[in-house]
Write a structure and sequence with these properties.
Layout: E1 15-19, H1 23-34, E2 38-42, H2 48-55, E3 59-62, E4 76-79, H3 84-96, E5 101-103, E6 116-120, E7 123-127, H4 134-148, H5 152-169, H6 173-191, E8 211-216, H7 227-235, E9 238-241, E10 258-261, E11 264-265, E12 268-269, H8 273-285, E13 289-294, H9 304-313, E14 317-321, H10 326-333, E15 347-351, H11 365-368, E16 373-377, H12 383-392, E17 400-405, E18 413-418, H13 419-429, E19 435-439, H14 448-457
Parallel strand pairs: 1-2, 1-4, 2-3, 4-5, 8-13, 8-14, 9-10, 9-13, 15-16
Antiparallel strand pairs: 6-7, 11-12, 16-19, 17-18, 17-19
Helix pairs in contact: 5-6, 8-9
The structure holds S-adenosylmethionine (SAM).
S-adenosylmethionine (SAM) binds next to helix 10, strand 17 and strand 19.
Length: 468
């Protein structure tokens, strides 16, 4: 019966002694170097191949006979010498100093055995015959290799990539085990082409390497980011973030994560959009988990759509995680309901700053002026123009309007008035921070008393109203 206890030993940077310098020694030395051990050879003469390894400073060689006590300080000893007396001395020395020893091809002088090994990637399979027949061990190893060389190492890679996320997300051992079982099962079915139509991978929800996540960070308050976004943030290897992103969120990232600011500061772009796209591709191709973190929602006036296209065009895996856009997060946090059964049946999000390179400007002020709640991004610098357009197209100069700077943040400033006087109020503040304009009756809700008053004055809604 084979009572050997199978273990895989980590001998990286550990000192290992090989006694002997011939062909057998060379083979053992190469295996030890693959395991990154620090190898010392003691032998009166050495082969050309061992000489070459010494010449390249891969091993240390002492050209002399073995002397009793040489094993001291070594983690392992391998005796690759035919001299029976020396074999016995090495074995006795090693035993007396508790150093594991293997005298090649002399099982009775071994406290550990080397096995026939198949290795590809991180998959390593070792076969032991209890020292009885290394040749049979090799044949068995080759059969295993034929069975498992294709697909399994890659499978191991995939599962290994998901493992840290599973460990983090499932502290409960039982549910974790169950997930791993399903995960391996699904992947094996996939490998053998037995995947059921429409079957999904149980780990598809976990953040993956070599993939870009375009994620919305919310309107400013870090707590307004989604839980999904935060989970990915905690796993990301690279975070490329904009000026609108609250940097408090960066305290959640891994210590080793690379943080790259790609936003706009003091009116100057740090990186052009094309450079950002290229960097996203580059980092994903390095096999990293890349997070493109954008203020608000990535697709609302955020150029997230362009980044998505650029990544898809070159075949990079990409996923978009929505965020709370400023136009929703700011009014809602202020108690301004953009829709309300009695006061607002329509909302529009508008940019006050259309791309000047576009052939035609698309804002149709005639249509906009008929919308109940108008939310304008990037419009503060053109506030006078916007107010003029709305009034010219029929909106009352007394229509409530608000401009909110640094919305949802502790330094938030809320200026309220009417279309007629809001420009003047903003002018007095001359703020440099991002500002959001809201026009519509619902703006009155920002003052709780005023809101009660308008609700009281309004006619009661019909019962079949659909708003919840
Ligand atoms: C380039 S857009 C990005 C919008 C972002 N993707 C979103 O969904 O909120 C920037 C504009 O969003 C508005 N904005 C974003 N965050 C804001 C905040 N905390 N306070 C006020 N306005 C904000 C401002 O109008 C600002 O000029």
């Amino acid at each position: 019966m084979n009572t050997l206890y199978p273990i895989f030993l980590n001998i990286e940077h550990q000192p290992v002694l090989v006694v002997g310098g011939g062909m057998v020694a060379e083979q053992k030395i190469r295996g030890l170097l693959d395991a990154k051990a620090e190898v010392t050879v003691i032998a009166p003469s050495i082969s050309a191949a061992v000489e070459e390894l010494a010449g390249k400073n891969k091993i240390i060689v002492h050209r002399r006979a073995y002397e009793s006590g040489d094993v001291g300080g070594f983690f392992l000893v391998i005796g690759a010498t035919d001299d029976k007396t020396v074999q016995q001395v090495i074995f006795n020395d090693a035993q007396s100093k508790n150093v594991p020893v293997n005298i090649v091809d002399v099982p009775q002088l071994c406290t550990f055995y080397l096995s026939s090994v198949f290795q590809k990637g991180d998959l390593k399979i070792a076969v032991s015959t209890n020292g009885k027949s290394p040749t049979l061990g090799q044949i068995i190893r080759d059969k295993i290799r034929d069975e498992f060389a294709d697909g399994y190492p890659e499978l191991l890679e995939t599962i290994g990539g998901v493992r840290p996320h599973v460990l983090k997300a499932f502290p409960d051992v039982q549910s974790r085990k169950e997930l791993f079982r399903r995960l391996v099962q699904t992947e094996l079915e996939r490998l053998h082409g037995r995947t059921q139509k429409g079957a999904t991978r149980p780990y598809e929800d976990f953040p993956q390497k070599g993939k870009v996540y375009i994620i919305g960070a919310g309107p400013g308050d870090p707590e307004l980011m989604t839980v999904k976004g935060l989970k990915i943030l905690q796993s990301a290897d690279v975070i490329m973030y904009d000026a609108l992103v609250n940097t408090e969120l960066l305290s959640y990232v891994k210590e080793s994560a690379e943080k790259i600011f790609v936003g706009k500061r003091a009116g100057a772009h740090c990186k052009r959009q094309e450079e950002i796209n290229e960097l996203l591709v580059l980092k994903a191709r390095e096999g990293k988990l890349v997070l493109r973190l954008k203020g608000g929602d990535p697709f609302i006036f955020g150029r997230g759509g362009e980044e998505l296209e650029a990544l898809q065009n070159v075949g990079i895996k990409v996923e978009v995680v929505p965020g709370i856009t400023a136009g929703i997060g700011i009014p809602t946090s202020l108690g301004i309901p953009l829709t309300h059964r009695r006061h607002s049946s329509s909302v529009v999000f508008l940019t006050g700053h259309e791309d000047p390179t576009k052939d035609e400007q698309h804002v149709d002020w005639n249509s906009i002026s008929r919308i109940d709640s108008i939310v304008i991004y990037m419009g503060v610098k053109r506030l006078h123009f916007i107010v003029d357009q709305l009034i010219q197209h029929g909106v009352s100069p007394l229509k409530p309007a608000a401009v909110i700077f640094d919305g949802t943040l502790p330094e938030e400033i809320v200026l309220t008035g009417t279309l007629e006087d809001i420009g003047e109020k903003v002018h007095k503040h001359s703020m440099n921070s991002p500002g959001l304009i809201i026009v519509g009756d619902v703006v009155r809700f920002v003052e709780p008393h005023a809101a009660q008053a308008i609700t009281a004055q309004s006619p009661q809604p019909a019962l079949q109203d659909t708003y919840q």
